From TrEMBL:
One Pfam family of this chain: LysR_substrate
InterPro entries: LysR-type_TF_proteobact-type, LysR_subst-bd, WH-like_DNA-bd_sf, WH_DNA-bd_sf
Name this polypeptide is given: LysR family transcriptional regulator
Family assignment from sequence similarity: Belongs to the LysR transcriptional regulatory family.
Gene Ontology molecular function: any one: DNA-binding transcription factor activity
Any GO BP annotation: DNA-templated transcription
C-alpha cells in the first residue's frame, strides 16, 4: 500500500511538471491509461480530487494545490534517504551491483567475471538482468530501480529512462541483425536460396521487431518479408535457444552469434536488418569509488578488445 502511494504521489508530481497526461506519457514511455489509473488510485486513497482535465491539460484542484508542496517534500526526502542508505561512493565498499540487458548478462559479462573478482579478494558481485519486454513500461519507477545499481547495460530504445545527470555513458555497443538457422534445421528442411524461400519456414522473432514483417537490406535495396508462421519470445536468449534447437529461422544480433560460437549458420549473409545498440553506463556517485573505477576499466577493456560488436 505504501509503495503504491509513493509511486502514485511521484506520478502526480511529475504530471504537474509535464502539464498533461499525454506529455508525461511521451516523456516516460508509459501508457496514458497507466498514468490515469495511478492518479485515480491516489484520489481514492485521499478521498479528494487532485486534478481536473480540461481539453487535455491538467489543472490542480484547490485540494491539489495544497497537497503538491507536501508531496514534493515527501519524494525529495525519500530520494535523499535512499541515496544515503545505499551509499554508493563509500571508499571501502566491496560490492558491485550490475543491472544488465539480458543478452549482455548471458553472452558477454561472464567473460569479465574472473578479472572483476581479481580486483579485490573481498569483492562481491551482484547481477540482475531484465528483458526488453519487462522494461517497456517501467516509466517513473525506473529511477528508484536504477538507484540500486552501480553499473547498467541498457538497450538504446530505453535510454530515455536514464537521468543523464546521474549516469556516465562509457561505451555504446552496436550490432546488426542477420538471419540464422541451426545446422540441424538446415539438414531437415528445404534449401533457402532467396528471401522468398523464407515464407516456407517458421520464423522466430523477439519483441525488438514486428511480429509479421521483417525489413531486410542487401547492397542494392530493401526487401520486405511477410511472415506466415512464427514463434515469438520476449528475450534474445529464448530466441537463441529455439534457433539452436532447430525450430526455425531467426533474425538475431550478430554479436550474440559471434560470442557464442556454436552450430548456428548465417543464411543469406548478404541480408541484414538495421543496427541496434546498448549502452554501458556507470552511476556518477559509484564512480567515485576506486573499486568501481577499476571494474569499469576491466569491462571497458574487454568490450573494446573483443570482436563481437561493430
Amino acid at each position: 500500500m505504501y509503495n503504491d502511494f509513493f509511486i502514485d504521489a511521484a506520478t502526480l508530481v511529475e504530471l504537474v511538471k509535464a502539464g498533461s497526461i499525454y506529455a508525461l506519457a511521451e516523456a516516460t514511455g508509459e501508457h496514458r491509461t497507466t498514468i490515469s489509473r495511478r492518479i485515480q488510485r491516489l484520489e481514492f486513497h485521499l478521498k479528494n480530487n487532485v486534478i481536473n482535465n480540461r481539453g487535455g491539460k491538467i489543472e490542480l484542484t484547490a485540494y491539489g494545490i495544497g497537497l503538491i508542496p507536501h508531496l514534493n517534500t515527501m519524494t525529495d526526502q525519500v530520494s535523499q534517504s535512499y541515496s544515503a542508505l545505499i551509499n554508493k561512493s563509500e571508499a571501502n565498499a566491496t560490492q558491485i551491483r550490475f543491472f544488465n540487458n539480458i543478452s549482455i548478462y548471458y553472452f558477454f559479462l561472464e567473460s569479465c567475471l574472473k578479472s572483476l573478482l581479481n580486483i579485490d579478494r573481498k569483492l562481491s558481485i551482484e547481477m540482475v538482468s531484465y528483458s526488453y519486454y519487462q522494461m517497456l513500461n517501467f516509466g517513473l519507477i525506473s529511477k528508484a530501480l536504477f538507484d540500486q545499481f552501480d553499473i547498467i547495460f541498457i538497450h538504446e530504445s530505453l535510454i530515455h529512462l536514464i537521468n543523464d545527470q546521474e549516469w556516465i555513458m562509457k561505451i555504446k555497443l552496436e550490432t546488426i541483425h542477420k538471419l540464422y538457422a541451426s545446422q540441424l534445421y538446415l539438414k531437415d528442411h528445404s534449401l533457402i536460396n532467396s528471401i522468398k524461400d523464407l515464407s516456407q519456414h517458421v520464423c522466430i522473432y523477439n519483441n525488438l521487431f514486428p511480429t509479421k514483417t521483417w525489413l531486410l537490406r542487401d547492397a542494392d535495396s530493401e526487401h520486405t518479408l511477410n511472415i506466415e508462421q512464427s514463434i515469438g519470445c520476449d528475450s534474445v536468449i529464448m530466441q537463441h535457444k529455439l534457433t539452436k534447437a532447430g525450430y526455425g529461422i531467426s533474425l538475431m544480433p550478430e554479436s550474440i552469434i559471434k560470442a557464442d560460437g556454436d552450430q548456428i549458420v548465417n543464411i543469406l549473409p548478404e541480408f541484414s536488418s538495421g543496427s541496434s545498440g546498448s549502452y554501458f553506463l556507470v552511476n556518477s556517485e559509484s564512480y567515485k569509488n576506486p573499486i568501481i573505477r577499476k571494474a569499469v576499466d576491466v569491462i571497458s577493456s574487454f568490450l573494446q578488445t573483443s570482436n563481437f560488436w561493430q
